């Protein structure tokens, strides 16, 4: 069992564990002291106690998830780490893969809970800024050929400067190149319908737009002061009670159909939380992201970026630099800028 003051030796140096700061079903996050000027980092370990109790197939899946995350983060170019948590080091400990990641202050779930306790809310401009940054992060995941499939408040990290957020936890990533339906992956409370309800032939037929549904659920969550969508809450409850069989039971309750994702009373609640001048474009984005049909959701991150600008009353001049644009913000060559670096800020 890993304890405080244990030394974890990775490829680039040694890390002394200080305190456990988080975890999930299979992973544990520690604050650790890094070598030399590195300072404190987040060390992500696979839970050895859970591994000891798990079946061989589950153990293999957890190790694959950790290796998957390491491979994805190692593949990123430095300029693509703006809104994705940075991998500082990696290696093995007790026969299991380990990640050393940049240490962020908190996550969006904890931050929203603290605001709710203080009877405070996220100002709309800040919520829109966070959604824009998450949209950029998803654009990078998709650009590198992956589906993220686990967007939720606990996986959105906040820095000491609360205007900056970063996406974390990439073990659930699935290759975009594979068109086959895959096994269940992600967190039921935040999933797109196609990620929770299996396809007719079995398996889950997800794509990049599955991540956009989760982005819509996050948008509603932020604007309404931390309230979950009823659709997401029902899926989460069904999964906790019946695992993947909960999807069929939920459909039976709704006459065999997949329930709607955005109820009229939820639209009304969301609208009341948005200033009148921004209400219509904000609702347009929310409805688009939460469409039950993936084909009717936004096609790509640039479309979402433009809809976010519309909420703020911003009409970008043609060819002008936009720091929230998922392509231009990365300052790298692309088809849209003639394969030249953009110099503007």
- Report strand %: 15-25%
How many extended strands? Answer: 11
Structural class by secondary-structure content: alpha+beta
> Per CATH, which architecture of the largest domain?
Orthogonal Bundle
What's the end-to-end separation, in Å? 48 Å
Regions with little confidence, pLDDT below 50 for 5+ residues = 327-331, 333-345
What Rg is obtained from the alpha carbons, in whole angstroms? 20 Å
Estimate percent helicity: 25-40%
The profile of the biggest β sheet is: 6 strands, antiparallel
Overall geometry: globular
CATH superfamily of the largest domain: Transferase(Phosphotransferase) domain 1
Name the strands of the widest sheet in spatial order: 1-2-3-4-6-5
Query: What is CATH's topology name of the largest domain?
Result: Transferase(Phosphotransferase), domain 1
Task: Tally the structural domains.
Answer: 2
Overall mean pLDDT stands at: 89
Note the run of SSEs as H and E: EEEEHHEEEHHEEEEHHHHHHH
Task: Summarize it.
The protein is 38% helix and 15% strand. It is of the alpha+beta class and 345 residues long.
Description:
A hairpin with a 6-residue loop joins strand 9 and strand 10. Helix 7 (230-242) packs across helix 8 (246-253). The strands form three sheets. A six-stranded antiparallel β-sheet has the order 1-2-3-4-6-5. The chain has helices at 48-53, 56-75, 108-117, 124-143, 193-196, 208-223, 230-242, 246-253, 264-272, 276-289, 301-311; strands spanning 7-9, 14-23, 27-33, 40-46, 87-93, 96-102, 106-107, 146-147, 156-158, 165-167, 174-175. The chain has two domains: 7-102, 2-Layer Sandwich (Phosphorylase Kinase, domain 1); 106-314, Transferase(Phosphotransferase), domain 1, CATH 1.10.510. The protein is 38% helix and 15% strand. With 345 residues, the chain is of the alpha+beta class. The chain is globular.
